[in-house]
Amino acid sequence: MILNKRMNFVVKPAFIFMALAFANNLSQAQNIVKEFHPDSLSHEIFLDFEKNFSYKKTMSKDFETQILIALSYFPELKAVKIKFRIKNKITPLSTRPSFVGMFRFTKNRTYIITISKKSISFLDTILLCNLNYNAQIGVLGHELSHVSDFNSKGFGSMCRVVIGHLSKKYVDSFEFITDRACIDHGLGYQLLAWSINVRENLKSTSWIGAANMPPDSISERYMNSGTIERILLMHTMYQSQ
């Protein structure tokens, strides 16, 4: 689309405002943005993000901008080593510390976020590559919320997380709380986009994970869109929106 001069005049200050806001808030959660698009970042802001948020990060070029935007909402992870890898996996996305990292102090850990490029046919529609841009940032925010949580836990606490995953009730609570952490970091609208996108693509009213495939369930392991909307409505961070 060709933009006229008046529209360019409006857009450029917006980019400048974003750049200043990002520069001034590297130590805290970012400003609330309702919707990100592939062209949301100018080249200058992208370079600024790359400089500030790519330290100790191994990223796929396919999703580099989305990852950097999500990382900008997690300043506590700035010096944390994270590897984003792409593999064929049933689960669309997953996060874990490296095996050796489990036994290390948090400052020396490496976390691995696996992005699946091919799953079973039922789940192919919700792979990261098949989600809309805003939803991609939302689910990446969910995974980074896991990293932030894991990085606050010592070896004993991480062992309890592993053991806890043997319980459905524990996993339900674990993922639900992780969604809340994503909202609290400022990516609530992106998480909402992910919640809606996943359920539309699966033609299902709920999504309780790749390991639990019934299309509908009363369990709300990952927040339904209505739940996210209610939280955003009451959350002080989102009041100005």
Task: Tell me what the structure shows.
Helix 3 (64-71) crosses helix 5 (133-150) and helix 7 crosses helix 8 (225-234). It is globular, with a radius of gyration of 18 Å. The chain is an alpha/beta fold and 241 residues long. Strand 1, helix 3 and strand 2 (81-88) form a beta-alpha-beta unit. Helix content is 48%, strand content 10%. The chain has eight helices and four strands; from the N terminus they run H-H-E-H-E-E-E-H-H-H-H-H. The protein has one domain.
Layout of helices and strands:
Blueprint: H1 5-24, H2 43-53, E1 57-58, H3 64-71, E2 81-88, E3 93-97, E4 110-118, H4 121-124, H5 133-150, H6 155-164, H7 168-202, H8 225-234
Parallel strand pairs: 1-2, 2-4
Antiparallel strand pairs: 3-4
Helix pairs in contact: 2-3, 3-5, 5-7, 7-8
Order of helices and strands: HHEHEEEHHHHH
Structural class: alpha/beta
- Rg of Cα set: 18 Å
Task: Give the % helix.
Answer: 40-55%
Strand order of the largest sheet: 1-2-4-3
Count of all domains: 1
Shape: globular
* Main sheet specs: 4 strands, mixed
Mean pLDDT: 85
Q: What distance separates the N and C termini?
A: 28 Å
So what's the oligomer here? single chain
Brief digest:
The protein is of the alpha/beta class. The chain has eight helices and four strands. The protein is globular and about 40 Å long.
Please describe the structure with a list of short key phrases separated by commas or semicolons.
disordered N terminus; alpha/beta; 241 residues; 8 helices; 48% helix; globular
